[in-house]
Amino acid sequence: MRLYTKTFPDPEIGDPYHLSLDKQGTVISAVFTCTGIVSVLTTATLPDGSPVYDTVQGIHTISTSTDLLDLHTRLDVADNTVYIFYIANEQFVDPPVNIFAQTLPTRAQPGTIAEKEGYATIFGIGIPSVASTSTDYMFAVVSTGSQLTLTGDIELSQNSMTSYQQGMHRLILGAPSYNTSTQLLSIPLSAGTSTNGGGTLGTGAGLVGQDPIDNTVPLTVYVSTTVGNLLQNKVPLVNGTATIYISLAGYPSGMTGKVKTAFKYWTRKAVTYFTTP
Asked: Which residue did the predictor score with more confidence, 197 or 253?
């Protein structure tokens, strides 16, 4: 398992603090130790319903553990799901929260949701593919101000994620090709390595600071089109490649279609256009 660090705003839990992560088989355990002043959520609320905090001085240690197999079987799991481990009342909130499913309606940032609910955010576990528990793609995120200790079957990646996005894979759409005999439009789809750019329409958004990715794990890519009939709206990306097929039978020539690809909780990862022949 490779672990990526991420720059979160330091939560109000005191400093210095220390996070230890251990992986034995499919079980990940975390021990969080904070020395100093800890912000504690109280039962009191302000007139507008906002939470009220108190502070406690000293050394505070809390722990939690989770089985990756349990995360993979949750009803809200999807490719590139990220589960966040919150802290409230000096305890880890159980079970971890699928942060992107929770923020999808408003597109709020994870930290915004955490602050609204009165939680502190320490780390999360990302699942690149529901179909696999491969050790290559799981990742944890920690606050930059913390000290980190890793034990067991886990190692720290040499690179840091400078952009925290749900989809760890950059999607690339190739040039559309039309078959006159079958009236099918085919569009190549692939997962590329990260680049130092924002990407353009048809190439997807580039990510910064990631290692080259292993595309051997099947991923589900969600596809939509404004013109034509998709043969599959959920396309399996196997070994990093796939093909999108769109039937244009019965459609007049000269129409402009727009194809979008995405992961379940992260939309508009790559876009391309075509014109009906």
From this structure: 253
